[in-house]
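Retro notes (design track)

What went well: tokenization of the new backbones is finally stable.
What didn't: we kept losing track of which sequence belonged to which structure.
Fix going forward: every design gets posted as structure first, then sequence, in one message. First example under the new rule, 478 residues:
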């Protein structure tokens, strides 16, 4: 844990690398000729805060998940690269996957694309500040040590090639697979573990039990790689609010051909996810995951029982069973409707009219009730902000912290969730080229812990003014 004499700057959802999609979207290549806006915007904010830092209380910069869009990237080695033949068909079609060496290659590509920002981060470390990287669902591949080493190398490179530079960066950068806990004042996690479509069965060990050198893709990962990225103008924004019908509606506006392509891709994801749900062997990872939980509890000085209680707050994975999977892609309601229609037609043909009418009515009533029950359960499972609020309340009670910070939904907020407890969402810095009218919020959280009081400020950075606008201020006693 960091030394207590630090102030905290929390940002999330940068999605660096989210525009490196040229393998799936070759038409986006010209955009890479222009500088990435986030480099100047975020760089100016970091420079400003570094300039005003109290030397007795340097910053701990917390990247609260999805700082790097490793899942959303679509890049591939050249056909003459040494490992081209080792690529699986899925990786050749959709870009480098989740193997350790692939994750490291993607990190290096991000560092090359965002060189000015990495130089700014390197200067931050060189000035005595620290960085904590919390894994999100888009950068879960930081699980691999190869990816973490590549990130350390990229942050050290602007400082020089000497071993001492790399050692200094390695000492100042920490990776957290679930949460970061600071003193008794601040708890930070990304928030995707409360989103069923983004959750792996074992978050601290997110590997495929059948292929342990690959990450086990969540349902959201599969949809992003195989449906969203290959289809022009289809955006990943608003993933926590959109269902499969929304995606089909969007593609239909682009023409029947693309709609059919989207439907075929969606069907392929559903079939693969169903196959995976029926042959799920993730139980093999349970013991190893428990050992990681115990080590994490010891490192953060949290009782194992408390950490297990916190894990019980996670949403069950959407693909944990065929029934759950079909519910999350709305196929269960389609099947219920189709089944009721077939049954009704059969009854109308085979039964006397006097019997057929009430029988068809009963089948229709049962099907309608089933659809309503499934829809209600789906709505409950997709209430990610509600789950986050309930989790924040429980977290604050279990680990006794007044400030809980999350990201994931891209919607900034300061929400009082209990007596003396506030949940902050840090919004997003990501520019979505498929949603040009959707401006990033550029929001961030400042937490300063004094001897008697904790002050938390949710702010929005205004690049044109090179200044922060305070959106919400909370002060609580320690």
């Amino acid at each position: 844990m960091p030394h207590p004499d630090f102030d905290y700057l929390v940002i999330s959802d940068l999605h660096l690398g989210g525009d490196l999609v040229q393998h799936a979207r070759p038409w986006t290549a010209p955009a890479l000729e222009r500088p990435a806006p986030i480099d100047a915007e975020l760089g100016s904010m970091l420079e400003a805060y570094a300039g005003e830092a109290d030397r007795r209380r340097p910053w701990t910069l917390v990247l609260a998940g999805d700082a790097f869009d490793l899942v959303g990237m679509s890049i591939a080695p050249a056909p003459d690269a040494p490992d081209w033949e080792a690529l699986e068909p899925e990786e050749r079609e959709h870009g480098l996957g989740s193997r350790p060496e692939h994750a490291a290659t993607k990190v290096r590509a991000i560092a090359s694309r965002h060189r000015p920002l990495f130089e700014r981060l390197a200067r931050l470390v060189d000035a005595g500040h620290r960085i904590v990287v919390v894994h999100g669902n888009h950068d879960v591949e930081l699980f691999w040590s190869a990816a973490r080493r590549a990130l350390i190398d990229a942050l050290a490179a602007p400082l020089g090639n000497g071993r001492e530079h790399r050692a200094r960066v390695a000492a100042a950068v920490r990776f957290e697979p679930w949460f970061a806990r600071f003193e008794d004042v601040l708890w930070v996690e990304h928030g995707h573990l409360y989103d069923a479509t983004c959750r792996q069965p074992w978050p601290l060990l997110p590997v495929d039990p059948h292929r342990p050198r690959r990450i086990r893709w969540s349902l959201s990962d599969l949809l992003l790689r195989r449906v969203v990225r290959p289809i022009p103008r289809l955006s990943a924004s608003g993933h926590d609010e959109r269902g499969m019908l929304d995606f089909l509606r969007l593609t239909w506006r682009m023409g029947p051909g693309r709609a059919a392509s989207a439907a075929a891709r969606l069907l392929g994801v559903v079939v693969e996810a169903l196959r995976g749900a029926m042959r799920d062997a993730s139980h093999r990872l349970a013991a190893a995951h428990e050992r990681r939980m115990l080590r994490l509890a010891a490192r953060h000085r949290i009782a194992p029982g408390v950490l297990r209680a916190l894990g019980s707050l996670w949403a069950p994975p959407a693909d944990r069973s065929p029934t759950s999977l079909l519910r999350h892609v709305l196929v269960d309601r389609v099947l219920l409707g189709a089944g009721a229609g077939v049954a009704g037609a059969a009854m109308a043909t085979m039964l006397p009219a006097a019997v057929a009418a009430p029988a068809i009515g009963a089948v229709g009533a049962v099907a309608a009730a089933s659809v309503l029950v499934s829809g209600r359960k789906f709505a409950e499972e997709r209430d990610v902000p509600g789950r986050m609020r309930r989790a924040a309340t429980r977290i604050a009670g279990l680990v006794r912290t007044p400030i809980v910070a999350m990201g994931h939904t891209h919607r900034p907020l300061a929400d009082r969730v209990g007596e003396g407890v506030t949940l902050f969402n840090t919004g997003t810095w990501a520019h979505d080229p498929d949603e040009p009218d959707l401006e990033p919020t550029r929001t961030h959280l400042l937490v300063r812990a004094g001897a008697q009081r904790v002050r938390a400020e949710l702010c929005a950075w205004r690049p044109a003014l090179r200044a922060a606008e305070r959106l919400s201020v909370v002060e609580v006693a320690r």
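Added context from the reviewer: Residues 330-381 form one domain.
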